[in-house]
Design the sequence.
């Protein structure tokens, strides 16, 4: 058997478990499954592996407790289900880990906890302290108060952001699928499993499909989460949580599921934070020359390389930089609000003062605040 040496050397894991696994596809909380996964995580801890758990299932468990057969669409009903379900979900984990003498900690994160630099650093410090104390943090998105406009979108993305927060070696996404297939196995049962790939390979997104009824994330979100985790140097495994002893077998290096390897050096801490910011407030359309400069030279984005601006953004907001075909090239914190940015695009930096009536920054986005994708 060929072993995955990367996994055998990973000492800090983020494990994400999806809604379909945790709720038996909606038929109540899967307490037997939680018992099995906790038992495996205890074995990983015994081996010296540090763990953080990102758990879906609060809304689905709340639906079951409230007797709802279909997922509601009204925001307040979803938030009510999350509030009810979170109680049962956390209690289930706490009781199982307590059997082995391990403490757990509940952490609910929202987008503002990542977007605000001070709160990001505070969350990072708290999580690292809990891990060092041997506590198992159980993390979920704060569905009770979050709105669609400021949500992470799915717990796959949240898992990747947590991997970045704690400098994890490995993100494990447990799902009800065997892994990523080259084609949709529901339509082509002969489609081969992707055993190994590079997290940044753009071909992976073409292989991914849609989402299920209970969760918001499909295989596409898992592929994108792997790419996000790779910014922090973490590898990602997508595997079936229904396989016997899946976590222990992965720790042994067994080639289960799909391994997506981080194909880049970890970004600096500030750029990892930028990678985690999800809410873009505007777009800068840049010319081919600017695309080359950003990708090949790692320099700042100057006004002369921008051909159009859209959105509603202020100085310091996160904006996306796209090429002429609308493909995202980079994102960063802009030095000018929309109106001023519109006045200086297409001009050289030495014209900024004359165009604006004051001496501003020569860059639209400084390279320290710019993440090339």
Sequence:
């Amino acid at each position: 058997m060929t072993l995955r040496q990367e996994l055998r050397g990973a000492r800090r894991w983020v494990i994400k478990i999806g809604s379909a696994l945790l709720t038996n596809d909606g038929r109540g909380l899967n307490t037997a499954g939680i018992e099995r996964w906790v038992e495996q995580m205890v074995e990983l801890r015994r081996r010296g592996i540090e763990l953080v758990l990102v758990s879906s299932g609060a809304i689905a468990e709340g639906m079951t407790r409230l007797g709802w057969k279909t997922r509601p669409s009204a925001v307040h009903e979803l938030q009510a289900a999350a509030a009810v379900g979170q109680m049962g979900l956390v209690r289930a984990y706490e009781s199982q880990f307590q059997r082995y003498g391990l403490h757990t900690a509940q952490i609910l994160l929202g987008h503002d906890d990542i977007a605000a630099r001070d709160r990001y650093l505070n969350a990072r410090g708290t999580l690292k302290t809990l891990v060092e104390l041997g506590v198992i943090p159980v993390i979920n998105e704060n569905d009770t108060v979050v709105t669609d406009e400021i949500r992470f979108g799915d717990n796959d993305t949240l898992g990747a952001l947590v991997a970045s927060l704690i400098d994890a070696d490995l993100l494990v996404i447990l799902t009800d699928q065997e892994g990523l297939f080259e084609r949709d196995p529901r339509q082509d049962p002969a489609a081969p499993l992707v055993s190994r790939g590079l997290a940044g390979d753009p071909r992976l997104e073409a292989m991914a499909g849609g989402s299920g009824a209970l969760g918001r994330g499909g295989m596409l979100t898992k592929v994108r989460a792997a790419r996000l985790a790779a910014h922090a140097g973490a590898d990602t495994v997508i595997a079936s949580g229904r396989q016997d002893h899946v976590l222990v077998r992965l720790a042994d290096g067994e080639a289960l599921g799909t391994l997506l390897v981080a194909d880049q050096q970890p970004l600096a801490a500030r750029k990892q934070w930028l990678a985690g910011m999800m809410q873009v407030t505007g777009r800068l359309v840049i010319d081919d020359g600017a695309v080359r400069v950003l990708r090949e030279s790692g320099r700042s984005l100057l006004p002369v390389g921008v051909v159009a601006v859209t959105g509603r953004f202020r100085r310091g907001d996160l904006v996306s930089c796209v090429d002429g075909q609308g493909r995202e090239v980079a994102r960063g914190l802009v030095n000018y609000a929309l109106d001023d940015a519109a006045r200086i695009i297409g001009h050289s930096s030495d014209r900024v003062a004359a165009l604006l009536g004051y001496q501003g920054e020569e860059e639209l986005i400084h390279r320290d605040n710019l993440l090339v994708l």
